[in-house]
Write a structure and sequence with these properties.
The structure holds 2 protein chains of 2 kinds. In chain A, strand 7 and strand 8 form a beta hairpin. Chain A is 0% helix and 54% strand. In chain B, the strands form 2 sheets. In chain B, strands 1, 3, 4, 7, 8 and 9 form a 6-stranded mixed beta sheet that branches. A 3-stranded antiparallel beta sheet of chain B has the order 2-6-5, with no helix packed on it. Chain B is globular and about 40 Å long. The termini of chain B are far apart. Chain B is built from no helices and 9 strands. The interface between A and B is medium-sized, with 23 and 28 residues.
Chain lengths: 122, 111
């Protein structure tokens, strides 16, 4: 069955960096766009970034542009989110989510992980 | 890119129907038929309930229905059940600058 499992969250000071990972299984990872979506404590969902299936294009929310970098390793079925210059407002549960259709991006997400918590605090 | 607009809360009694609205702009909801809806129970990951405005994934109850008119999308839940109590988020494709935008979420309470 399809699974996506996030890891890498933790407590970090403002201005520092952190890298999240998401390992996928149960589907042909290299055929699907993959997203990061975050949810601050007690708040709503916020889309963060997407990478196309072959890694050729990446898109970001304005709130993270220039600080976060999404990448993938299709040989390892793994999605990454490199987060630099972290701010207190980046504190959230970060979900990895799979695009529902092959070779497209920004449509809908049919599988989500359970999330990994990032806390930015001094 | 601003979030799509949803009312913060809605409530209904078991067996009733409710509608949750989601208002965007001509750059997102008004321009694309890639509107989706997600249900999120406390402490759980979101679940896809509706995609492409009105399509239901396999396994989702036909009590859930989606529609769109202009810049406003809607999710209607018929025959409310206790397990429908959750947060609901709309989502839309938003073009090549910021690809995706979510609504702020609506908390559904089943009385």
């Amino acid at each position: 069955q399809v699974q996506v499992v996030e890891s890498g969250g933790g407590v970090v000071q403002p201005g520092r960096s952190l890298r999240l990972s998401c390992v996928a299984s149960g589907f042909t990872f290299s055929s699907y766009g993959m997203h990061w979506v975050r949810q601050a404590p007690g708040k709503g969902l916020e889309w963060v970034a997407v990478i196309l299936s072959d890694g050729s294009r990446k898109y970001y929310a304005d709130s993270v542009k220039g600080r976060f970098t999404i990448s993938r390793d299709n040989s390892r079925n793994t999605l990454y989110l490199q987060m630099n210059s972290l701010k207190v407002e980046d504190t959230a549960l970060y979900y990895c989510a799979k695009e529902s259709k092959i070779l497209v991006a920004g449509r809908e997400f049919d599988y989500w992980g359970q999330g990994t918590l990032v806390t930015v605090s001094s | 890119q601003s979030a799509l607009t949803q009312f913060a809360s809605v409530s209904g009694s078991p067996g009733q129907s409710i509608t949750i609205s989601c208002t965007g702009t001509s750059s997102d909801v008004g321009n694309y038929n890639f509107v989706s809806w997600y249900q999120q129970h406390p402490g759980k990951a979101p679940k896809l309930m509706i995609y492409e405005v009105s399509k239901r994934p396999s396994g989702v109850s036909n009590r859930f229905s989606g529609s769109k008119s202009g810049k406003t999308a809607s999710l209607t839940i018929y025959g409310l059940q206790a397990e429908d109590e959750a947060d609901y988020y709309c989502c839309s494709h938003a073009g090549s600058s910021t690809l995706v935008v979510f609504g702020g979420g609506t908390k559904l309470t089943v009385l």
